[in-house]
Amino acid sequence: MGKITFFEEKKFQGRCYNCSSDCADLHTYFGRCNSIRVESGVWVIYERPNYKGFQYILSPGEYADNQQWMAFNDNVKSCRAVKNIYGNAWKLRLYERPDFGGQMVECSDDCSSVYDTYKLREVYSCAVTDGVWVFYDLPNYRGRQYLLERGEYRQHADWGASSPGVGSFRRITEF
């Protein structure tokens, strides 16, 4: 299991909370979060309790302000450690239609622009056969983030997206 520390103020100042397990409701430990230190593991933090709302995937490192993890505000209300590690292989299938319909592309590496690389404007469904991945709604690993673990995602809402736009994606390689 990993370890993550949340700080109320920027640059690791103010009240802090050390966490080493999943937590569905962090509001009793701190009111806002403006910096984070990830000592070990990969974590998904959420803007709302019970693993809801915008999600941000953080690898080991220091995040001195919330812009460093691309947050829109200082809300962090739940977190969980990424546990499903499947070795050193990564494989992902993207589909242009729901329920695995239409054109399919198979990927095993990071992609900074889904449109430039695969000519897909939208990804409606996908299947993760190996590894853990992060989708971004904009190219160059920007915008909203979505964690995808091994499994089938029949529609974009299954990975938490409100639209089928996937601009880029990458493998999680740091555990």
TrEMBL record:
Task: Report which superkingdom the organism of origin falls in.
Answer: Eukaryota
Please provide an example of a Pfam family that matches this protein in its UniProt record.
Crystall
Record carries keyword Cytoplasm: no
List the InterPro entries hit by this protein, alphabetically: Beta/Gamma-Crystallin (IPR050252), Beta/gamma_crystallin (IPR001064), G_crystallin-like (IPR011024)
Q: Which UniProt keywords apply?
A: Eye lens protein, Repeat
Task: Name the GO terms of the biological process aspect.
Answer: lens development in camera-type eye; visual perception
Please give the SUPFAM superfamilies that the UniProt record associates with this protein: gamma-Crystallin-like
Q: Domain Beta/gamma crystallin 'Greek key' spans what residues?
A: 2-40, 41-83, 131-173
Which Gene3D superfamilies does the record cross-reference, listed alphabetically?
Crystallins
| A GO molecular-function annotation | structural constituent of eye lens
Family of the protein in this entry: Belongs to the beta/gamma-crystallin family.
Q: Briefly, what is this protein's role?
A: Crystallins are the dominant structural components of the vertebrate eye lens.
What protein is this chain from?
Beta/gamma crystallin 'Greek key' domain-containing protein
Q: Which organism is it from?
A: Tetraodon nigroviridis (Spotted green pufferfish)
